[in-house]
Amino acid sequence: MTVPSNVRLDPAAEALAPTMREWRHHLHAHPETAFEEHETSAFVAEKLRSFGLEVTTGLGRTGVVGTLKGRHDGNRAIALRADMDALHMQEQNDFAHRSVNHGRMHACGHDGHTAMLLGAAKVLADDPDFHGTLHVIFQPAEENEGGAREMVADGLFDRFPVDSVYGMHNWPGLPLGYMALRPGPMMGSYDIFEIVVHGKGSHAAMPHLGADPITAVGHLLTTLQTIPGRSLHPLDSAVVSTTQIFGGDTWNVIPPSVTIRGTVRAFKASVQDTVEARMRTLAEHTTASFGCTAEVRYERRYPATVNSAAETALCAGVAARLVGAENVDHDPMPSMGAEDFAFMLEKRPGCYVWLGNGPAEGGCTLHNPAYDFNDANLAIGASYWVTLARTLLSPDAAKAA
To answer: Which portions of this protein are annotated as coiled-coil regions (predicted)?
Structure first.
């Protein structure tokens, strides 16, 4: 697929597109999952050093930060972030750059994110015509394990002070050549829960002699679904999804316990508080009505990804210059998908944008075993990063600061 005619590419990023494609295909073929990104980190670090950036490795275990000083003095500093990790999935594609690492796959486009930011770093290093300092952050473990939290805890913004930080994700379903962003919540929080229901095992033909945790769980599953509809304000959003059930060994035995697990998504911390409290209450009382008890573990993994207003307005202007104002959605419906870039936005103002990846059909959806990043986006994403960096680190921005 070619770049749409509405996109005004940075000429240097456009010229680098074939090289970015080679990088992306190499990364796609060699996926590494959370905190295992040793080869990926080494690849990124080697490229950054070859461009002339100062490189720091091992931040947040396997993270990489590249630092580039502008040609002109300036006190401003910004950070651009890409995620590097893959998913525990078996790829079903049969093209030449399919995964060679069994059970691991770049099914979310982080290979493309990494290649785009590497491309932008190369373009800016070749012509550092800006004021101040640029940090490019290559983050591990976005999927489930909170690599952004680890980098922040490891002193990311203490060692690399910035005024603001920016992220981007490819977005299937949004046309190629379109971008979307909004101030406020962009992505949901990510909580997980585990409820172990303890009963009394018995012969399946003599259930009156036990306390059946399976029956208790059956009722609890439907009761949990009342939380969004009956415990929250109608304008507040939450998703409670049970995704795993474990219990029982054979046909004629009622087990002594059953475990359910799942996830909760929301946009507000107050909603997370309500969901957790109601879950604990409902688990206790619903299971008690069947003579069982419940042990609840509730863990808050990622907060909501919340864009700051001023930085979002700046990014919207850059996006409009890149793809045309009519191709920028300023008020997309937020996603209940989660993004650990939220931890960086909790520490610094910034903006997270969606980059259209084309139709979400067949294997084009995220986390699908047939997914592949759209290579036409490499020059678009790199152009966005280059334009954003030069805008935020321009003389006018330096004077305003």
So the answer is: none
